[in-house]
Design a protein that fits this description.
Number of helices: 0
Shape: globular
Radius of gyration: 13 Å
Largest sheet: 6 strands, mixed
Structural class: mainly beta
Number of strands: 10
Order of helices and strands: EEEEEEEEEE
Helix content: under 10%
């Protein structure tokens, strides 16, 4: 079955960086668009970034454009989210999303001084 497992969250100071990873299994990874979403405290879940199967097309939420980079390694069945210049408002649980309505369990990112 489809399984998505996120890692890489943690506590970071404003201006810092983190890299999230999402390891996928149970489907032909290279054939599908993958996405990162986040849900901050008291907020609805929102799309952060998306990348097509071959990695040729990426899209970003306006709030993270220029600071975050989504990428994938189809040989490792893994999608990444490099987050730079982190801000307080980036604090959220970050989720990986894949095909067939699949979601990971989420990883907490907390930006705090």
């Amino acid at each position: 079955q489809v399984q998505l497992v996120e890692s890489g969250g943690g506590l970071v100071q404003p201006g810092g960086s983190l890299r999230l990873a999402c390891a996928a299994s149970g489907f032909t990874f290279r054939s599908y668009t993958m996405s990162w979403y986040r849900q901050g405290p008291g907020k609805e879940r929102e799309l952060v970034a998306r990348i097509t199967g071959a990695g040729g097309v990426t899209t970003y939420a306006a709030a993270v454009k220029g600071r975050f980079t989504i990428s994938r390694d189809n040989a490792k069945n893994t999608v990444y989210l490099q987050m730079n210049s982190l801000k307080f408002e980036d604090t959220a649980v970050y989720y990986c999303a894949g095909p067939f309505g699949s979601w990971g369990q989420g990883t907490q990112v907390t930006v705090s001084s």
